[in-house]
Batch of 2 targets.
Target 1
Amino acid sequence: MADNGGVNDPAATDPAGLAAFRALLTDEGRALLAELHDHDPADELTLATRLRRSYAPELVSAALAQARLRQRAAVKFGADAARMFFTPNGVEQATRTSVAAYRAREFKGLGVRSLADLCCGIGGDAIALAREGIAVLAVDRDPLTCEVARANAEALGLAELIEVREADVAEIDTSSYDAVFVDPARRGGRGRIFDPEAYSPPLSWAIEAARKAPHAALKIAPGIPHEAVPDDVYAEWISDSGDVKEAVLWFGTRPGAFGATLLPAGASLWSARATMLPDPEPRPVGRFLYEPDGAVIRAHLVAEVAKAVGGGLIDPMIAYVTSDGLHSTPYATSYEITDQLPFNIKKLKALLREREVGILTVKKRGSAVEPEELRKKMKLRGRNSATVFLTRVAGAPTMLVGHPAPTG
Ligand SMILES: C[S@@+](CC[C@H](N)C(=O)[O-])C[C@H]1O[C@@H](n2cnc3c(N)ncnc32)[C@H](O)[C@@H]1O
């Protein structure tokens, strides 16, 4: 495949980097890495000086860099990170375990037993797929990344299920696999890439590869406009603990639908394009405010949430839903609203003082105010907590004060 704007250019892998990584896999390298388990980055200078008495300086530098990457990767891979290997790009681009495991279960549920992971990186997805018992051909064109993926498969006891192949994805014949998964590189030398045709491989290539397989999924940026989503796929936005992590295009399941999946609970809301509800009507602010999850908003399913809670929007352009009743939904966080004020810092300050609010959560949608600056200006003191929404109600800048609604 033609080189794509320098996105993860294979020539970028420096042979010295490969040699340094291989040194970490020797008994000596592993012993050194074990010594760095849980090291405190603040003590690195002293530590490095001590370690250089017993190990070669290049090995110490490589091990310290790897130990730092393991610490960074713990947010994505949890306890596994301490046994895994990474590259800086590899950590950045890898799918976190929660999302990869969810997707692997979906593939397994479709009856998939073998899968070609085209653009495997350090193996975030391949590992989760193998843990579901799926045999994975993991392909990446970057030599160091492939070595790291192999080391990860071995470190996690999955080497029998993961075959790592260093190749351009365009060279791979996927016809003997039950499924294809493509996670194109979306970062280049100059940062994040927004044009899907500038991904490596380009989105149009990935779509073509997906269409040839009985089952397929493509991971894409959550910001993909709905117009860019092919008509016959299921576009799923995935959030984890309230943060939108990615979008996935599924081929062969729920054709022509948009959906949102919220992890860790795994609740999924979806609708066929043809039957999606129109935008909810605006209405006056009621006793409760619902903040839909970001994945629900990206999937354009706010109207479905509004219907479920018997509510409407506070403003035609703002994705806050309001209703007079409290309804439990996994797709939105609910708040009880106690006060509605026109946007006025002094009035808010007076109200918070009167209510003895010492802890303030600031949320905003449709307001340019910086939450941290607002919090400073409030000079908070007191034993109570509150949430303030800086937003617009029927076009007017407004502050809504309240607190999380009781659950259960
Ligand atoms: C987003 S990362 C994959 C991350 C992976 N899913 C994970 O969870 O660890 C994309 C990878 O695609 C590889 N890549 C980009 N273009 C490629 C191509 N044409 N052939 C093979 N690999 C390619 C890059 O080297 C990079 O490692």
Note: The longest strand covers residues 332-342.
Target 2
Amino acid sequence: MPKWQWVQLGLGLTIPILLIEHALSTGGGILRVRLVPNYEYILAVFWHFVPIQGWLQVVLLVVTWTHSVFGIHNWLKVKPWYPSWQPHLYGLALLIPTMAIMGYASGGFEVLEKLKNPLWLIQMLKDIHYPGPEFDQQTKQLRDYWIIGYTLLIAAVFAARRVRLYFSARSEGIRVTYPSGRRILIPNGASLLETSRAGGIPHASVCGGRGRCSTCRVLIIKSDDGCLMPPNDVEKKVLEKLKLPPNVRLACQVKPTGNVTCEPLLPPDVTAKEALSPGKYMHGQEITITVMFADLRGFTKLSESKLPFDVVFMLYQYFQSMGSAIEGAGGRIDKFIGDGIMALFGTEGGAENNAQQALTAAREMSLRLELINERLKNDLNEPLHLGIGIHRGSAIVGTMGHGAATQITAIGDTVNTAARLVSITKDFGIQLLVSAAVEAEATADLSGFE
Ligand code: FES
């Protein structure tokens, strides 16, 4: 569980302990001895007769308010308008308890003033039907019983949960496997998010598992037949809003009844805003794409004889030209690696013509390289040469990386093969090498080529 959730839980569990004596002497007094408590009586107790109780009321107010503010904050933080309102609401969150405490103090001082008159006290106790000091003794005794009972109850719940987890994980043996190879045994009824938490696997959960933020979403890689219930209404709403495919589920809502292999899709420190903005995080999926690798031949040698400024200038022109050729053909630059380029075609869907798009891009890159060579002919000892390798096939496409270096990319054999093709262009001394899969899909007549 994230720290804030532990704090919220801890504060929530403290409230009954702080509240019980007050409840027993007011509500309890009404039921037990027909007491008619009023504010003056209560303030007299807090400010004069049992001042420690008075201080505990302030602590209770702070604890309860903080607990509520946590809840409200976590409810609202997935709303798009919340960040701009947050500073104002923060001010309000401080102002309300401060004013409450001021009101409490002002009432207390008024009653202290009145208590200077013993007749006022006698009349007030008569008005509320105060039965005598034995009532306070009984209240204290009851308070102790309640606190002991409550503490035992909470401890029993935690202990019972531990015992249940221990035994049911062994007898029912539901296995959840993560891409790292980690396997965690869980009992029936535990959610995938609880599983990650139990195994200490970092797993985003901005809304704390309430099915509102989508940050806990996982890709179900494999699962036993029928072990995953269809999404409930809460989950369905989020999945539909983000148009997530059926193999992506909210870990906080899915409670498998059989073995599952899954992968958390978002980094553990993702914000709700990032998770909900379409396109920012693409769930991993296996799709057919065309992958291109391009390399500038002999550039390393050339750069050794040039000033750093010239090297950067030349590379800038090259990347600009190649980048716009690729994007103009419908591809996406995945990354620049030194003087190399990796580009993907078909990641946005439309798998039909992405092989052709890649070939178009390759032709355009070749033409643009000629222009660069023409422009730089006085600076170059020999023209720049390009090697391009293109392959097509299925690859896992999704958002990967860390922090600012997070981006949509592809991994798999198709990518590795395209990388191999570009290195083979060097062995053959050729500019372009495409696989048979690309040729077939692009329906290009390559018979005139080797
Ligand atoms: S943790 Fe927010 S939707 Fe699952």
Note: The chain has three domains: 3-155, 174-276, 285-442.
